[in-house]
Amino acid sequence: MPHAMTTTQGAPGKSTFAVVQNIIAEVLIYEPEEINEQSSFDDTDLDILDTPEHERIVMMIQKKFPELQLDLHTLRDCETVADLVTYIEDERQLSEG
Fold it and tell me: By C-alpha distance, which of 1, 5, 28 is closest to 16?
């Protein structure tokens, strides 16, 4: 399911997926286009679980979305980028309303 309509507070018009995609790309030194919603966090695709990059991604997402309660365990529970985007969007809706 695409997440193009939800925008971040600090980046008008930028989808939650695009923000997460850019963070992951920056940390892992990928081109953003190489990361899609079905990219997995395990060794199949991104291979970040239990690495320093894992923690850095969490910290960068927390900076972009300070209203979230995101931690390393939350990211471990997300199997794909889409799972993480859904978690962020759900948590943001709860904090707004």
Answer: 5
pLDDT tens, position by position, 33-79: 999 999 998 866 777 767 788 889 999 999 999 988 888 888 888 88
In the chain the first and final C-alpha atoms are separated, in Å, by: 23
Q: Do 27 and 64 form a contact (C-beta atoms < 8 A)?
A: no
Determine how many CB atoms are found less than 10 A away from the CB of residue 81: 22
| β-sheet bridge partners, residue 40 | 80
Contact 47, 92 (CB under 8 A): no
- Whole-prediction pTM: 0.79
